[in-house]
From TrEMBL:
<feature type="region of interest" description="Disordered">
    <location>
        <begin position="291"/>
        <end position="316"/>
    </location>
</feature>
<feature type="domain" description="OmpA-like">
    <location>
        <begin position="172"/>
        <end position="294"/>
    </location>
</feature>
<dbReference type="InterPro" id="IPR006664">
    <property type="entry name" value="OMP_bac"/>
</dbReference>
<protein>
    <submittedName>
        <fullName>OmpA/MotB domain protein</fullName>
    </submittedName>
</protein>
<keyword id="KW-0472">Membrane</keyword>
<dbReference type="InterPro" id="IPR036737">
    <property type="entry name" value="OmpA-like_sf"/>
</dbReference>
<dbReference type="GO" id="GO:0009279">
    <property type="term" value="C:cell outer membrane"/>
</dbReference>
<dbReference type="Pfam" id="PF00691">
    <property type="entry name" value="OmpA"/>
</dbReference>
<dbReference type="InterPro" id="IPR050330">
    <property type="entry name" value="Bact_OuterMem_StrucFunc"/>
</dbReference>
<feature type="region of interest" description="Disordered">
    <location>
        <begin position="263"/>
        <end position="282"/>
    </location>
</feature>
<keyword id="KW-0998">Cell outer membrane</keyword>
<feature type="region of interest" description="Disordered">
    <location>
        <begin position="62"/>
        <end position="92"/>
    </location>
</feature>
<feature type="compositionally biased region" description="Basic and acidic residues">
    <location>
        <begin position="80"/>
        <end position="92"/>
    </location>
</feature>
<dbReference type="InterPro" id="IPR006665">
    <property type="entry name" value="OmpA-like"/>
</dbReference>
Length: 440
C-alpha cells in the first residue's frame, strides 16, 4: 500500500485474453476498521481509473480498455467507460476481500512482464501469464468487448520523461527527452503513428524555453544492414522534427540526425548470442535535446523555482525506501512518517501540467524529483492518456494518519549506467535525501 488507508492489493496477476487484451486481477483487502471501495482510491470506471501498466523495455504505457456497452452491475453505468469489474464500485467491509479485474490492451507477444501502477498502492512488476491460466478468476467483464481504438485518445502511448539541467551549471539551460520508437512508428517504418501526435504534444508542453535549438536524434536496433538502419533512424528523426516544429513554432532552430544502430543503450543479444527482444526495443528510440537560447528568461525552467519548505519542522519525516534502476527507467519510493498525534496533509496534488502564477511548474508537498550530479532535475514521467503523472496517489489522497506512514513513489527516466547514488528531493523539504541506486 502507499496511502495511509489500511488496504492491500494481494496476488496481482496479468493474463492474456487472446491477442488484443490483457487482464489485471488482484485481491483488494480491507485491513482497516471501516468499509472502503476500490473506487474510493481512484479505481472508478464511472469517472476515471487511475491504474496503468508499463512495458519497461519498450517505454510504453497502457491505460484501461473501454467498452461500448454499459455495465448492468454498476449503477449509473453508461457506454464508453473503463472495462472494469463491478467490484470496483463495491464497498468492501473491514477485514474482507474482493477480486478486482481491469482489462488493458495487450502488449506485444514478446513482452513477458509489466510494471503495475494502481493508485493507492506501491508499484510492482508482474509476469504475464498465457491465455487460459487458472490464476484468472472468471468475471463478467472478461466476456464483454473492448471499444475500437480511439485515435484521438489512444490507451497506449509512450512515456515522456524529462531531464533538466540547472541553468547555473549549464549555459544555455538544457532539457532532454527519450521517446521509444515502438509506439511512434510501426516496425521498419518512419511514418508517425496516431498516438505519436499526442506524445509529441505532451513533450512540447514540458519544454519551458521559448527559443533555442532542438536536436532530434534517431536510433535503431541491430536488425538489418548498417546502411538501412542509418537511413531509417534519420527518416524517423526527420518525422519527429517536422511534428515538433509544427507544435513549437519558428522561434527554434531544428536539427535531425540519425545514428542507426550505433550507441545502443542495451544489448541487442544475450551473452549466449541469442536474440534479446527487450534490449532491441530499448535501442529503438528517438532522443530530443532542447538548448534554450542564451538570455531566454521569458519562462525560466522549473529548476529555478524557489524550493517549497512548508513541511520542514512538522511531524512528517521523509525517508528513502528505495531508488531502483529498471530497464529504461528509475523508480523511487519515499516513506513519510507522521510522528504526531493528529492527521497531517502533505499538500500534494498530482497534475504534471499544473503551473503556478508565474508560469513555473508547481512543486507540491510530497512530490518527488531526482537531483542530478550537475544540479539539474529528473521529473516524473508523463503518460498522455491521463492528466496525472506516473507518481503516487493520483486522487490526491495525501493525508498521513497520526502514527502512520504514507509511501510516495515516482517513475523517472534512466540514470547513467554507472551511477550508484542519487539525491532524492521531496517537495516541502529544503534538504535532499541521499540514496543508493539499486539494480532492479
Amino acid at each position: 500500500m502507499s496511502t495511509g488507508v489500511r488496504v492491500a492489493a494481494r496476488d496481482p496477476r496479468l493474463v492474456r485474453l487472446g491477442t488484443t487484451d490483457l487482464a489485471l486481477q488482484f485481491e483488494f483487502a480491507n485491513q482497516g476498521t471501516e468499509s472502503i471501495s476500490p473506487a474510493d482510491l481512484g479505481t472508478d470506471p464511472l469517472t476515471h481509473v487511475i491504474a496503468f501498466l508499463v512495458d519497461l523495455p519498450r517505454g510504453t504505457g497502457y491505460a484501461t480498455q473501454r467498452t461500448p456497452q454499459a455495465n448492468p452491475d454498476i449503477d449509473g453505468s453508461g457506454p464508453d467507460e473503463a472495462r472494469a469489474s463491478a467490484t470496483t464500485e463495491k464497498d468492501v467491509a473491514a477485514g474482507q476481500t474482493e477480486t478486482v479485474t481491469l482489462v488493458f490492451p495487450a502488449p506485444p507477444a514478446e513482452a513477458t512482464s509489466m510494471l503495475v501502477l494502481v493508485d493507492g498502492f506501491v508499484p510492482v512488476e508482474v509476469p504475464i501469464q498465457a491465455q487460459g491460466s487458472a490464476a484468472l478468476k472468471d468475471d463478467p467483464v472478461l466476456h464483454v468487448p473492448s471499444s475500437p481504438p480511439n485515435e484521438l485518445d489512444p490507451p497506449v502511448a509512450p512515456l515522456v520523461c524529462a531531464t533538466e539541467t540547472d541553468p547555473a551549471a549549464a549555459t544555455p539551460a538544457q532539457t532532454s527527452f527519450r521517446l521509444p520508437s515502438d509506439v511512434l512508428f510501426a516496425f521498419g517504418s518512419s511514418t508517425l503513428s496516431p498516438s505519436a501526435a499526442r506524445a509529441i504534444d505532451a513533450l512540447a508542453h514540458q519544454i519551458t524555453a521559448t527559443s533555442g535549438t532542438v536536436t532530434i536524434a534517431g536510433y535503431t536496433d541491430s536488425i538489418g544492414t548498417d546502411a538501412d538502419n542509418q537511413a531509417l533512424s534519420l527518416a524517423r528523426a526527420s518525422a519527429v522534427r517536422q511534428a515538433i516544429a509544427a507544435t513549437l513554432g519558428p522561434d527554434f532552430t531544428y536539427k535531425a540526425v540519425g545514428f542507426g544502430e550505433t550507441s545502443p543503450v542495451a544489448p541487442n543479444t544475450h551473452q549466449d548470442g541469442s536474440d534479446n527482444p527487450d534490449g532491441r526495443a530499448r535501442n529503438r528510440r528517438v532522443e530530443l535535446t532542447v538548448d534554450a537560447a542564451t538570455g531566454d528568461t521569458s519562462q525560466p525552467p522549473p529548476t529555478s523555482e524557489a524550493p517549497n519548505v512548508s513541511l520542514d519542522g512538522t511531524p512528517l519525516t521523509p525517508a528513502v525506501q528505495t531508488v531502483t534502476a529498471l530497464p529504461g527507467f528509475t523508480l523511487a519510493q519515499v516513506a513519510i512518517h507522521n510522528s504526531g498525534t493528529a492527521d497531517r496533509e502533505l499538500g500534494y496534488y498530482n497534475d504534471p501540467n499544473r503551473v503556478g502564477p508565474d508560469g513555473i511548474r508547481a512543486d507540491d508537498g510530497g512530490e518527488l524529483s531526482l537531483a542530478t550530479a550537475t544540479g539539474g532535475r529528473l521529473r516524473p514521467c508523463a503518460f498522455t492518456p491521463s492528466w496525472w503523472g506516473l507518481l503516487a496517489n493520483g486522487t490526491g489522497a495525501d493525508t498521513v494518519p497520526a502514527g502512520g506512514t504514507l509511501v510516495q513513489w515516482a517513475l523517472f527516466g534512466p540514470l547513467p549506467a554507472n551511477q550508484k547514488s542519487i539525491d532524492v528531493v521531496v517537495g516541502g523539504y529544503a534538504k535532499a535525501l541521499p540514496a543508493r541506486v539499486a539494480s532492479g
